Amino acid sequence: MGKISVTWKKSTIGYSHRQRKIIESLGLRKLNHTVEHEDTPSIMGMIKKVNHLIEVKELS
User: pTM value?
Assistant: First the structure.
């Protein structure tokens, strides 16, 4: 499994509380904060739910 970099790019104001919880579960704390995760099905499922709020890059 590869590694991915996830950056929070858009505020959750006006979006559901569930989406805010997903952002927190990914480990993101502030706008423009970046974290690295393994490319697992559970992480990819969370990313799919909030892809309009984040930016994802594959790391080699």
Answer: 0.92
